[in-house]
Amino acid sequence: MGVADYDGLLGWITDPSLRSIAASYYEEFHLALDARAWVSSCVLAGAVLEAILLNQLPHQPGKPTLGELISSADGLSILSGHETQLASELAACRNKLHPGNAAETGAPERSTAMRAAVLLEGMVDRFGR
Is residue 57 part of a domain? Predict the structure, then answer.
């Protein structure tokens, strides 16, 4: 992607520590894509998505799961129907990190990582305006 300042790219994330974490994960996400590390890409994309949703949603009590954040964002129309579908796929993909789950359903593949990239790029573009 060639971004030099991920923190600046995510400057619309209001909490500085959340922004810093999201920026670090987003940079690593792109490095993992370049390295063709599909599992790592999906895990990192899920973490970036979680940070974006935590920023965009009203305060969530406790520690909601990524699935709960996606449901809340969908219910408040923060995500489009297509984004909700991609985000849900990403959440399911992230759960494949557990070896027992991956053995049953298969590890994340390139296509999933590419769809995660489309989702994140679209959200970063839309919320960053």
Answer: yes
Q: In the predicted model, what is the mean pLDDT of residues 20-46? A: 95
- Please tell me the total number of residues recorded for the chain in this structure: 129
What is the rounded CA–CA span in Å between residue 45 and residue 31? 12
Tokens matching residue 93: 């993909």
49 located within any domain:
yes
Number of domains in the chain: 1
Dist. CA 129–CA 115, nearest whole Å: 22
DSSP for 89-118 reads HHHHHHHTTSHHHHHHH----HHHHHHHHH
Residue 35 has pLDDT above 90, yes or no: yes
Single out the residue of 39, 20, 6 nearest to residue 107, CA to CA. 39
